[in-house]
Specification:
Helices cover 36% and strands 26% of the residues. It has 354 residues and is of the alpha/beta class. The protein folds into three domains: 187 residues, Alpha-Beta Complex (Spore Coat Polysaccharide Biosynthesis Protein SpsA, Chain A); 34 residues, no CATH class; 71 residues. Strand 1, helix 1 and strand 2 form a beta-alpha-beta unit. The protein is globular and about 60 Å long.
Length: 354
């Protein structure tokens, strides 16, 4: 019998997180009366990790000898999955009640090419992760030249905030979806193609979504479907993350913007550290912000302050230790903004130490 949905969980050095992910999927299948299967894929994590994964109750274990990246892991899982409705997921995701049904239902709509849930970052569920961040040459260039014009940076921040708040509140069509969890019909993969395995880390879902859009389908964000994404946990364990991300970035820029566009972006990146310093934001000694009714808090590692995770400021906020401890070292930008229109009110910087 063909399953109602095939969940493809891709892991790299994430056996502990994969166990929680698969358990949440099993609970969802039982609770939501779904005939579902789990295809658990490991991307070259080594024998000790593979042995842990074999003990997880998946319907199929696909244990790759090499790290083909998330793209290769998804493609390997697609080859084993049996359902026409597919749910591809990072291993560091926990599905909340109802999410699988809502995502599967949305993916079944004829106009929808892919659907994604609202992802929260912390156990309490107060911090929402960005719904997506659509690329583009001017947007990418602005990311690299942030800090040269505070007025321009504020306008860009407010525009992103308004769009993200709309998606978090009511959902709907999006220009880009976060790739942590995507639901799609097999027919969409047949039409748009599989993930491009030349992207070893990141950009693979962005490039694939561009093909889905060109094929005439919508990208759908579903705030009613919720998951928890332990963002940055597994990536921090891979010493090759930086190199693999840079490789994907170079390929994506060349494909999308051509040789000249790539050259201009890379030149902007090189000159970033040489740009004249503007007024530095005030420092935070601890990652905490006092309550401010009518405002929200954006947290981002980028000088542009976007994309960002968000928390409301109806009450005092402090970044949970479980999140703070796993963040990479460096500056983290805490921006208070008006929830009504996205206008930034104040930015402070918390320096995360190793």
């Amino acid at each position: 019998m063909t399953p109602d949905v095939s969940a493809i969980v891709v892991s790299h050095r994430s056996a502990a997180e994969a166990e929680g992910c698969v358990a949440s999927l099993r609970e969802a299948f039982a609770r939501e009366a779904l005939d579902g299967e789990v295809v658990l894929v490991d991307c070259g994590s080594g024998e000790e990790e593979r042995e842990r994964l074999r003990r997880i109750a998946a319907d199929a274990h696909v244990l790759l000898d090499e790290n083909r990246g998330y793209s290769g892991g998804v493609n390997a899982g697609l080859a084993r999955a049996r359902s026409g409705t597919l749910l591809v997921s990072n291993a560091d995701v926990v599905f909340f009640p109802g999410a699988v049904t809502l995502l599967s239902r949305a993916a079944g709509e004829s106009r929808v090419g892919a659907a994604a849930p609202l992802a929260v970052w912390d156990a309490e569920g107060r911090l929402k992760l960005p719904p997506g961040f659509a690329p583009g040459f001017l947007r990418d260039l602005a990311q690299l030249t942030a800090g040269r014009s505070s007025a321009r940076d504020d306008r860009r921040f407010a525009a992103f905030a308004r769009e993200a708040l709309r998606l978090w509140r009511v959902g709907g069509s999006a220009r880009h979806l976060s790739g942590a969890v995507l639901a799609a019909r097999r027919a969409i993969f047949d039409r748009a193609g599989r993930f491009d395995e030349r992207f070893p880390f990141e950009y693979e879902e962005t490039e694939w979504q561009a093909r889905v859009l060109r094929a005439g389908f919508d990208l759908r964000f579903l705030p009613q479907a919720r998951v928890r994404h332990l963002w940055a946990v597994s990536a921090s364990r891979n010493p090759e993350t930086g190199r693999r991300r840079a490789q994907s970035e170079r390929l994506y820029r060349r494909q999308r913007y051509g040789r000249i566009g790539r050259f201009l972006l890379e030149r902007a990146a090189r000159s970033r550290s040489l740009a004249p310093a503007g007024q530095s934001p005030a420092l935070l000694t601890v990652p905490a912000i006092a309550a401010r009714p009518g405002a929200a808090l954006a947290i981002s590692p980028n000088p542009s302050r976007i994309p960002f995770a968000v928390a409301d400021l109806d009450s005092d906020f402090r970044l949970p230790d479980e999140i703070a401890g796993g963040l990479p070292a460096g500056p983290w930008y805490f921006t208070v903004f008006r929830a009504a229109d996205g206008r930034p009110l104040e930015t402070r910087v918390w320096e995360k130490t190793a």
